[in-house]
Amino acid sequence: MAAIPVGALEQSADWEVPEQQIGLWQDAWHRFRRNRLAIVGATVVLLLVVIAITAPLLVHFKLIPDPYTQQVENIEVGPVTAGHLLGTDELGRDTFSRLLYGSRVSLAVGILVQFIILPIGLGIGLAAGYFGGRIDNILMRFTDIWYAFPDLLFVLVVVSVFQQYTFGNVIAQMVMIFGAIALVNWVGLARLVRGQVLSIKEKEFIEAARSSGSPPMKLILKHLLPNSLGPIIVTLTFGIPQAIFLEAVLSFIGFGIQPPTPTWGQMVNSGYESIYANPSSVVFPAIAIGFTLLAFSFIGDGLRDALDPRMRR
Amino acid sequence: MAQTLLQVEDLHTQFFTSRGVVRAVDGVTFHVNAGETLGVVGESGCGKTMTALSILRLVPDPGRITSGSILFRSKDVTKMTDEEIREFRGNDVAMIFQDPMTSLNPVTKIGPQIEEAMTAHDRFTEALARGRVVELLKRVRVPAAESRVKDYPHQFSGGMRQRAMIAMGLSNEPSLLIADEPTTALDVTVQAQIIQLMKQLNRELGTAMMLITHNMALVASLCQRVIVMYAGRIVEEGPVEQIFKSPQHPYTWSLLRSVPRVDEARKDRLVSIKGLPPDLSHPPPGCKFHPRCPFVIDKCKVDPEPELAEVGPAQVARCWVLMRNVKDEDVTAAKQSALSKDAVAKLKEPTGQVSGNAGG
Q1: Which of A127, A151, A196, B302 could cross-link to A228 by cystine, CB 3.0-4.6 Å?
Q2: Is A24 within 8 Å of B97 when comparing Cβ atoms?
Q3: Which residues have a Cβ under 8 Å from the Cβ of A52 and sit 6 or more positions away?
Q4: How far from B278 is each of A228, A246, B232, B282, B288, CA to CA, in Å?
């Protein structure tokens, strides 16, 4: 083998066809784009975000009625009556504009809750997976115990304890509810991250990095975390509809954001008593919840397929 | 005389499993001189990799270095603090692994990945390290190094990845590079390139190399000295020419007989070694190689294997028989028997009770 001249070998190396410069993320984006349902979901979500942001502007320019104004002469009117696209509720407030305003709470719950879940789940999962042994055992048993507690019950307890400290302040209420929902939903992420770390930890490149003297923090942040990012993003995306739904449930049973701030769950709750007389005040918020959940789930599905390295071509 | 870089003294690395204690490395003593290339050969599961990992103190759980010392420039690796060992890895001794496909982080570009190996230590600043990456890739002869630093590992071919791994290993200018089967996962032509490269680097940089392999040809072309390991122990050690010319331990002899050679008569068939290496949690009594040895005598089955004894110039072996004491007709018989139907049938049996049908 030593007889083969070096130059000849060098040339053989040049035969490689230079691949197009495609990074992992561009690659994932390509695959995501090919998934029609995911694109539909993304479009719906984008639309919702635009609506949530512009709702106050629409009211300001009088394109839609104010969601807080009661029109005593138009209580529980049907759709397309007296300038109310989707009718009014039992207090004579415009259902359409309340629907648009409700998206603000729902999106905020869905997305901000993930930002609370992320550090908790990541911290516990990374620590348990990386250090292993006793630390892993303690953290995971803690997680198990947490998981064993019924979600709804836990949230109800938190809300009923802290409700009195919010003094009717909407922001304070939101923070409390976000926190409560995040506290019951971090378990899944923590377990996922731990599992990811455990499997990636055994890969040779971790050993290689260790053998070149990489400090533990670098191992975690540069090797373990980036390699588990795909599943983490997917889990968080699926967590959004879960959180939205939980908030809707809370609002429905009256433990969510307190009136008059409109939320979809609350609208279903208040319209529910007059469902036969005025179905539009129940049906439309319910549809809004349904479609939003579906849209996020489609995105989640699309991301899961796009970020799964095994799906690579 | 060459200066001793690494002195491993009576190293024991054991795994504490539910099935008992596995003596993966069982009293290994050897040294590596500055600038030299040392080959470590043996079948899979003979403790070669564990010896290497022990040197870097990277033995995976539930394994532990239980006794012995590893002196690198007369500083004991086994007694280093965590911070010291971290500085030691990569800086003084670097390691490259068998499979370049899995040894690179798939989500980090090649350039930053090599850079990281340097910035893990204080030797190079970030800017300096970045500048060195291209230079290193050129040194390991990666074509178009300037543009390839921006590539992800999956855009590199196997040989190129192994070059990148070698570049990473060399990035901190270690005085010893441990290569754990660096060519096993590569195809033959690429293997030749990598061997060529390692040879050149060893000459250019004077980096000592410890080459772990089961490829005898690789040892012959790269190494000056060779250690043969079996069941966690060194069974033979000596200069490469000496070992190839007159192997004294039957295991070394068998290993050499099992690879094709250009200079052998054509009618000489290859001889495979019967059975598998022993289960190290329950090793056989006596010499651990005796169930597979074609020249086994009764003493081998009862008495513990002897100490390493001088058998030639700078050559030591651990055997009661020694190849020079084996009669020529027995050697021929051993070659024959390994090919007979009888032996093929025995191959299929589990290890243990394979009698020495060649006599001895």
Answers
A1: A196
A2: no
A3: A100, A103, A104, A107, A108
A4: 39, 59, 10, 8, 7
Burial class (CB in 10 A: 0-12, 13-18, 19+), B322: buried
**Would the CB atoms of A24 and B193 count as touching at under 8 Å?**
no
ipTM: 0.73
Is the alpha carbon torsion for B143, B149, B154, B159 positive or negative?
Answer: positive
pLDDT tens-place string over residues A130-157 = 998 899 999 999 999 999 988 889 889 9
Q: Is B186 exposed, middle or buried (0-12, 13-18, 19+ CB in 10 A)?
A: buried
CA end-to-end span of chain B: 41
Chain B stretch 289-348, residues whose beta carbon is closer than 8 A to a beta carbon of chain A? none
Contacts of B245 (CB under 8 A, 6+ apart): none
Contact of A51 with A103, CB cutoff 8 Å: yes
pLDDT digits (tens, 9 = 90+) for B116-167: 888 888 778 888 888 889 988 988 888 888 888 888 888 888 888 888 988 8
Side-by-side strand order, sheet with B176-180: B93-96, B176-180, B208-213, B37-41, B225-230, B233-239, B315-317, B309-312
Strand (E) or helix (H) holding A227: helix A225-252
Q: Which tokens hold the place of B2?
A: 């060459």
CB contact under 8 A, B104 and A6: no
With a cut of 60, say whether residue B83 has pLDDT above it.
yes
Residue B325 contacts by C-beta under 8 Å, 6 or more apart in sequence?
none
**For residues A69 and A77, is the Cβ–Cβ distance under 8 A?**
no
Closest CA to B9 of B28, B33, B23: B28
Verify whether the Cβ–Cβ distance A21 to B141 is below 8 Å: no
Structure tokens that stand for B306 in this block: 């002897």
List CB contacts of B69: < 8 A, sequence separation 6 or more. B7, B8, B9, B10, B11, B76, B78
CA contacts within 13 A on the Cβ side of B128: 10
| A2 contacts chain B (CB < 8 A) | yes
Instruction: Read off the pLDDT of residues A221-274 as tens digits, 9 standing for 90 and up.
Output: 888 988 888 889 889 988 998 888 888 888 888 888 888 888 888 888 888 888
pLDDT tens track for B177-191: 999 888 877 788 888
Specify whether the CB–CB gap between B349 and B274 falls below 8 A: no
Which one of A202, A212, A311 would you mutate to disrupt binding with B, by most B Cβ within 10 Å of its Cβ? A212
Report the sign of the C-alpha dihedral through residues A273, A277, A280, A281, in that order.
negative
Closest by Cα among A281, A123, A254 to A190: A123
Could you report the per-residue pLDDT of B225-236, keeping only the tens digit for each?
999 999 888 999
Residues 6 or more apart from B244 whose CB is under 8 A from it? B220, B256
A-B CB pairs within 8 A amount to: 115
Which one of A14, A21, A205 has the shortest CB-CB distance to B104? A205
